[in-house]
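Example record used in the benchmark description.
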Amino acid sequence: MNEENYSAKQLADAIVEGIQDKKGTNIAILDLSKLDNTICQYFVICDGESTTQVDAIADGIEDYVRKHLGDKPNHVEGRENALWILLDYFDVVVHVFHKDQRGFYNLEELWADAKRTDIENLF
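Model output (structure tokens):
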């Protein structure tokens, strides 16, 4: 990983760009950096309309980050059913949900102490 070349915030911003390229919606960035005992500095959460779009959003994130920052996720989970794909970039963990699954897991509520930034949908 090229951690010395960019910050976790720059990575989170690049991930948002990758999500937007694939028309992912309801993007939220949770800043966990000021909380104790967290696994990363940021969560980036978004959703897609279908499993096909969820998969495309995850691909778009990987492509955008690789192209612009030269990095790839340490670990990826959830590709099999594409209802919730997790991309772990160490300092930033991305959660790409199918819109029907996001409310069920409600990560924003679980991490309510984190500073939340909502990104306006582009369309």
